[in-house]
Prior knowledge:
Elements: E1 2-6, H1 8-17, H2 24-33, E2 38-42, H3 52-61, E3 66-70, H4 74-83, E4 87-90, H5 110-122, E5 126-131, H6 135-143, E6 148-152, H7 154-157, H8 162-181, E7 185-189, H9 197-201, E8 206-211, H10 213-222, H11 224-235
Parallel strand pairs: 1-2, 1-8, 2-3, 3-4, 4-5, 5-6, 6-7, 7-8
Helix pairs in contact: 2-3, 2-11, 10-11
Amino acid sequence: xxxxxxxxxxxxxxxxxxxxxxxxxxxxxxxxxxxxxxxxxxxxxxxxxxxxxxxxxxxxxxxxxxxxxxxxxxxxxxxxxxxxxxxxxxxxxxxxxxxxxxxxxxxxxxxxxxxxxxxxxxxxxxxxxxxxxxxxxxxxxxxxxxxxxxxxxxxxxxxxxxxxxxxxxxxxxxxxxxxxxxxxxxxxxxxxxxxxxxxxxxxxxxxxxxxxxxxxxxxxxxxxxxxxxxxxxxxx
Length: 236
């Protein structure tokens, strides 16, 4: 299993005070040096953390893989087509949310997402869709030409009891196998941390996990390089 590190909250910390530090590009270099297989950043419409210039600089500096999370809006699509990340992960986005709250409704948004996917493919950019672990959403993802899916693990991570978490984990396992059987690359992410990652890491069909907040929080205590190395050890 591969690990991509989301560096959004390095930018959150920078923006809280203004100025240029801490630098998300420097953080990405540390994460790569510590064993991360890729870097994730989310260019939101309100630019609450990552900014346009961050993505431009990351594209130039990253030696592994740049995954740009984004809403499928005309402005952000245009930016992505110009910068050309290795991968775009299309996610739902609401201005008032603290973090992404659930998967895309691929069934409802089938036509505009299919158009967006074609535009990315025409530029040689791979596409992942952030979806809930649901048959209909996975079927629709395959039908509109996505290269991969990222299963939303938030309900598993936020489960109030062991039984609830296990129920969501079993659904993730089932949908990972289903997505894989359709020929989709299956990734996972959201809410994963040092305590709940191991059961997900044991799901053979999941090729990569994306983790951000938990690693940045851990880095406050032990430093970013050690925080990433600890997570790498847990999943590998």
